[in-house]
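Let us practice reading a record.
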Amino acid sequence: MRNPNGYGSVHKLSGKRRKPYAVQITTGWDEEGRQIRKYLSYHTSKSEAMRALAKYNDNPYDLDNVSVTFAEIYNKWSEIKFKEIGNSGVWGYQAAFQTCKSIHNIKFQDIRTNHLQGIIQTCGKKHQSLKKIKVLFNQLFEYAMKHDIVMKDYSDFVDVGKNKEVSTRKPFTVEEIQILWDNSHLPYVDTILIMIYTGFRIGELLDIKLGDIDLINRTITGGSKTEAGKNRIVPIHDKIFDFIKNRMEDNKSEYLICNSRNGRLAYPSYKTLHFYDIMRKLSMKHKPHDCRHTFATLLNNAEANSTSIKNLIGHSSFLTTEKIYSHKDVEELRKAIKLID
């Protein structure tokens, strides 16, 4: 029985070849009605080639997708994804992508578990970074399957192992926090105290715009990274209220914390030029994330409600499915914040 017009064909190529049977499919018709053909794949036997042709006709795919590389999939995916997440999330994915240089130019259809696992095992990154790399793999394979580029998700089989690393995070001590208060007149010391009393990450703090701040009700709406952490409401502690108010009054930018050109202050610039500079001046040894760790520790030490702690730092979804904060909800968070000295 003949195949229907446009189904494609299998024929044997001349000469000695390892895979002599070629699958040829129709990609369109020219102005005179003749078929425009293109080679789909090559096989060792005719039966194998016929199965490949049948499989293609069961689920035709864009031939341009056959040769698309890992890097090209990343570029297409990131055009969409990066519009949905904050800058800190973008930087995390960009760092993970750079770690995968060895597979950037491999056809995505040819990538297997051993390629992905090899990166995990040889990149030399810490466990947290390995988890981010695997998340990138998951996201790219999900995108590729959605667009019929691959039929199987090999990222599911990637193993990053158990986290055996000892945490290097340490909260600021009571004495160190007092030193920060004693030196709050120094530029950007206020931003460290704001993070300690709100739990915002650096990227989240730098993303905060003036419109996210309600001075009347004394709240800030911000956050990113996880679904639970996005757009969470954090009451402004009395101790840092003047810091925020003063920055808003003196501000010519849409951002609470801005650069010299009144634009968004970049994460690397803040960390290098301001945070670590302050640590040196005050003889402290802390990483930026220690501020967030300090916030959680202070709340825990003050025996704040555990649900409020999770909601304030964005580690669990809020009580209502659509994250609509009632007056009562905000007041519960405010009570927790006020427990911190």
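A brief commentary: The chain has a mean pLDDT of 83.
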